[in-house]
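Hi U.,

Before I forget, here's the chain from the pilot set. I'm dumping it here mostly so it's searchable later in email.
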Amino acid sequence: MGLKAIALYRDGSKFSQPLSSKQTQTEDDAELQFTKEQLDQAVKRAVDEVNMILKRGEKKPMPLKRAGFTQEALVGGHKIYFRTGEYENGDLGEVFIDMFKEGAAYRSLLNCFAVAVSMGLQYGVPLEKFVEKFTFTRFEPSGFTNHPNIKNATSILDFIFRVLGMEYLGRTDFVHVPPAMDSEKAVSEELNVPGEKDETGPQGETAKPAPSNLMNQQLSSMMGDAPACDVCGHMTVRNGACYKCLNCGNSMGCS
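Structure:
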């Protein structure tokens, strides 16, 4: 049974009785009593989770006519096109990647990689897993882009999965310029801009954002590939083309 030991005590030999055969119900035991409705809901949630895990091994076919978007971009001076295919509910189901000037071998590898990602999505692998794995991968071609939200990418895959994370997951932590509508909404909610849904105090005064909330907003805009400070080990943020430490002010790579 995996037990490490079995302890035997003579009844009454301990100051505090380790084991009792009396069937007494304490207040803590009463709090653990559940209603039938609560038990039914817990069982239903457990069954739904098990069914979701089992469905990950089943392929969800794509519709014959599907929506999506086509993204044209330049990454380090290299033109790239990639398309997406969506299910009826808007979930991502497939991706296509094409760089027609890079040669047959490189283009074929990108096409095979896109097929592998598409198969994973259709067999139930969450898009979040792909985004976490392939963002900030570093290899050439890399560099500046002409995308309105992602200004620099460390590789082609880094650029693609940053775009997919922003478009389908609403992620803005690894983009340089958050989408305008989302940014304005976030700022208005954070600062309680007049004309939006304001929160007022007991005297009718507009509530001011807490300093911790402003700090969290700043930290959420940090780049995910920012290294730790080489002086104090604190987190760093982008400062132009370099990184600056928020703790000691050390500038990494800049004069």
